[in-house]
Amino acid sequence: MKQPGDIEMLDSTRLAPMAVGGLVGFRTLLYKEVLRFWKVSFQTVAAPVLTAVLYLLIFGHVLEDRVKVYDQISYTAFLVPGLVMMSVLQNAFANSSSSLIQSKITGNLVFILLPPLSHWEMFGAYVVASVIRGLTVGLGVLLVTAWFANLHFASVGWILVFALLGAGILGTLGLIAGIWAEKFDQLAAFQNFLIMPATFLSGVFYSIHSLPAFWQAVSHANPFFYMIDGFRYGFFGVSDVSPLFSLAVVGAAFVLLAMLALRLLKSGFKLRH
User: Fold this and answer.
1) In terms of CB atoms within 10 Å, which end of the chain has fewer, N or C?
2) Domain count, the chain
């Protein structure tokens, strides 16, 4: 006859392999997602870096002497952080959304759903891989474009916080889009009519103070603006709005989107049904 202590010991020994197995599952899925984009890094990393450099060369050359943003900050220097953050956001979204829609269409999503992975582990693996890709591309853009401008680093902490949160938000949004979309053109519509306009109208190429009052109000309703404005503050120590307010908006957006993504994963919406 087992004593109560024996039962507790038995339960704990059964739980230990489950915890280890969950960790291994998360690490395996994360490794698969990182390897997926890294094996074609010429397309997923080098191409976005080249695109950002072309933006810098064109806009920087044309508008350098025509646009003044902050005092003693050239337009090219102002443009670099915006291009870096835009690259981070777009590539973080592309990583999770493209991975999920490809798995759904090719039919290999079943190999992710069959193992005993929790919705937390799936969410973590997809989003962390998206953050890694976004930051990798962003770092590449920064290293290349820094040659064209005299950059300052007023606060590395703010740079890292907004880069991580921004990549996390777009990775989560890409996960939601990948769950919702059933074919490539639906995902393309999500990206072309939501992600792209929100990114380009977020102050990447201009300060919102140069806009009419109506468009300033529209910009303040765009969460992407706070990601880029807060990120830019880390370089120059000046911004269009308070970095603390931007952090509050960006943090709240991440929490809300993460809750939605976790709920969709837990319910199996368009994945198991």
Assistant:
1) N
2) 1
Mapped to the 3 state alphabet, what secondary structure does 190-213 carry? HHHHHHHHHHHCCCCCCCHHHCCH
Residue 17 domain-assigned (yes or no): no
In a domain, 71, yes or no: yes
Q: Which residues contact 231 (CB under 8 A, 6 or more apart)?
A: 81, 84, 85, 158, 159, 162, 163, 166
Query: In one letter, which amino acid is 33?
Result: E
What band does 230 get if pLDDT is binned at 50, 70 and 90?
very high
Query: What is residue 20's predicted lDDT score, i.e. its pLDDT?
Result: 42
Global pTM? 0.88
Instruction: Determine contact, residues 22/121, Cβ cutoff 8 Å.
Output: yes
- 9 inside domain: no
Parent domain of 212: 25-267
What are the pLDDT digits (tens) for 43-59? 999 999 999 999 998 88
Determine the Cα–Cα distance for residues 25 and 27; give it in Å rounded to an integer. Answer: 5
pLDDT beyond 50 at 149: yes
Is residue 172 a contact partner of residue 258, using CB atoms and an 8 Å limit?
yes
Q: Residue 106 corresponds to which tokens in the numbers above?
A: 């090719």
- CB-based burial label for 53 (10 Å; 0-12, 13-18, 19+): middle
Q: Could you tell me if 149 and 61 are in contact, meaning their C-beta atoms sit under 8 angstroms apart?
A: no
